[in-house]
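pls read this protein:
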Amino acid sequence: MTATRRLPLLVSPSRRAWLAAAASLGALALGAPFAHASAARKLTLAGWSKPISEITNLLAEPDKGFFKAQGVDLAYIPGAGGGDAIRNLLSGQADVAFTDPGSFFMALDKGERLRGIYDIYPQNVFNVVSLKSANIKRPADLKGKRIGVYSLSSGTRQNLLVLLHQAGLSESDVEIVVTGVLNFAPLLQGQVDATAATDTGLLVGRRRGLGEVDVMEVRDYINLSSDLFVLRETDDPQQIALMRDFLRAYRDSAAWMIAEPDEAAAVASRRAIDGTDRAINREIIGLRNAAALAPAGADGIAPPLGAFDMALWQQGADAYRDLGLIQRSINVRDVLDASLLPGASR
């Protein structure tokens, strides 16, 4: 289901596996070769991650120039989670946040005036992994277990709680253990019974000898989006026009990575801090390409890139309230705006 309703847009006054090993980086100017183009308008994107292979379509800007082609001079501020991206947006350091639904809902719950404008990964990429010997096959089996998460503010914890909610369980029914992003070692060492992770984290874990495990995919229970673009409310026509061009460029970059995954893997080997193994790059890119494509509707037609499934988003917002992660009800039609998507009517 694609939202077409226009909302008053955006001014407020005001995963993953390689982050721990990455050196701290400053703002990365992805469009540096084009920074002096006279027509380019500067736009700063606050990310949840360092420049890793998952976001190769953004890192490819010096090579492909998708944003330059739309008159956008793109800069990227790295982060360590969706909460970082929201904080950089609210502080005025960024124009757009690449964040997760939980961080978005929590900011809205605090009264921030924000709008989601593009569903980056409509497919949920989170999971809960356990050793075969633990015999954890379904969410109800997690009761009384120790479960690892990256951090208490991470999407791993939030999606774990959503998964527990589907089985009628809450956080008090389990013991949550903060293990950091490299959290398969505690699982193998018996420090936790299960661990929450992402698809790419699991991929790397298996490459490093994780062995046979049981995996519960959150999307099999509730396929809530993993990430979206968020802005502050504004009625500035120039800012709105810039955001339209940004989304057009991002869509083109995402379509390129879907169409040319091998080329993208080669770009990741030059641009991503975790891109040393091109074969792993290719697998990670394949996972992110799959997450970017929404399931086909009842008519057999898949929604365009960036479209919101309002029913699923509402289900997710309601689950966050039921879990106590947010205190007030959120009507997602009031905070998700598809009017800036490429091809949307103005």
About this structure: The first helix runs from residue 56 to 59. The beta strands are 41-46, 72-77, 96-99, 114-121, 126-131, 146-149, 175-178, 194-198, 213-217, 227-232. Residues 1-29, 31-38 have pLDDT under 50 and may be disordered.
